[in-house]
Amino acid sequence: MPDMDWPDAAELFAPFETTIHDWTSFQEHVNDLVGMHGGERFVWRGQSDAKWGLRSSLYRKLADQLLSTPTEDQVIAAEKKLLKLARIEWRLDGIPALQLFAQMQHVGVPTRLIDVTFNPLIAAWFAVARNDSTDDLPGRLLAFTQNNRPLQLHTGWNTNTPRWHRLGSDQERRTVNWGTGLGRKIWRPPALHGRIPAQNAAFIVDGLPIDALDVDGNLPTRRSRWLASELRWHASVPMRLARVEEDRLPRKAPVFTFLITPNAKREIRFQLEENFGYKFATVYADIEGLAEYVNSWPADALTGTYP
Fold first, then answer.
1. CA torsion sign, 22 to 186 to 32 to 140?
2. Coil, helix or strand at residue 243
3. What pLDDT does residue 298 have?
4. pLDDT digit string (tens) for 253-287?
5. By C-alpha distance, which of 113, 129, 280 is closest to 201?
6. 286: enclosing H helix or E strand
7. Are 33 and 42 in contact (CB under 8 A)?
8. Which of 44, 81, 132, 176 qualifies as a FRET site for 28, CA 20 to 30 Å off?
9. Are the CB atoms for 101 and 196 separated by under 8 Å?
10. 71-80, long-range: CB within 8 Å, 24+ apart, which pairs?
11. Burial of 229: CB neighbours in 10 Å, binned 0-12, 13-18, 19+
12. Rounded (5°) CA angle 66-45-178
């Protein structure tokens, strides 16, 4: 069965991206962004191929099976199946849904959570880490603002049934800004897995993109380049791209994007691994990471020169 043929996300990102040509420009652009928006807290994500969109693993998995972009209802139905499987067949009962999803995410089970980090150096490592299939391609660094109160487990989020499963329609989702970009949550989970503290990890938690109502309670006319139905081809969460040089942030889920050239990848990787100590063994600091390294990257891990 063929996988989903995703469109190139360059059309989405290109008008807003800033290009990183080397290690020095990486530092300068990150400092410029943080300095211009000093009152904001950022989380970061690195992707080794600049053509990729921002899609959760569960969104991609469902799309490959459906050969179309899934709906929020289809994502929720899949989540219910995963929770039932984990709790009954694997006897992981008694763990609140969000914590269970976090544990699933870090061992490769598809979820709607999107991995980010509070450390831009770690995000850059993910964008430039050695990868035979993407080493010669531009990478991408994304920066997200934490413009809402962070998600905390001592609130109503720490339940056996995810809060968003109680929302039965887009109308109900708009009421609580689930999927509109106005309610995006950044969750810094407890150390449920060794990789979480090693990567200074967090998750973006939000619904699939839907168009927010305007001040009069109507669906907006086309004032933006991308409607939610179009954005869902590139992203499984809402986002509004912004330019680094603009001093005013969009109100809805602002995102900044940086293109990392192939030559810059190699220089940044050298700096991060040799001078800052960010490498596979420190980012994947667990026994599963060792197994992944030896079994799949690089091909000569046992017979060649380490690392």
1. positive
2. coil
3. 62
4. 899 999 999 999 999 999 999 999 999 999 998 88
5. 113
6. none
7. yes
8. 132
9. no
10. 71/208, 72/170, 72/173, 72/179, 72/207, 72/208, 72/210, 75/112, 75/208, 76/164, 76/165, 79/111, 79/112, 79/162, 79/165, 80/165
11. exposed
12. 55
| Secondary structure of residue 54 in the 3-state scheme | strand
User: Beta-carbon neighbour count of residue 307 at 10 Å?
Assistant: 12
**Rounded to whole angstroms, how far apart are CA atoms 133 and 250?**
35
Give every CB contact of residue 199 below 8 A, 6+ residues apart in sequence. 115, 117, 119, 122, 283
Question: For residue 151, what are the β-bridge partners?
Answer: 187
DSSP letter string, 264-282: HHHHHHHIIIIIS--SHHH
Cα separation of 145 and 267, whole Å? 27
Amino acid at 214: D
Looking at residue 217, its pLDDT comes to 53
Residues of the chain short of pLDDT 50, as ranges, are 215-216
Q: How far is CA 169 from the centre of its chain?
A: 25
Beta bridge partners of 60: none
Q: What angle do CA 224, 11, 25 make, to 5 degrees?
A: 105
What is the identity of the amino acid at 280? Answer: F
Q: Where are the alpha helices (DSSP H) in the chain?
A: 10-13, 23-36, 57-66, 72-84, 97-106, 120-128, 170-175, 195-198, 228-231, 262-270, 280-283, 287-296
Contacts of 24 (CB under 8 A, 6+ apart): none
Residue with tokens 């994947």: 284
pTM: 0.91
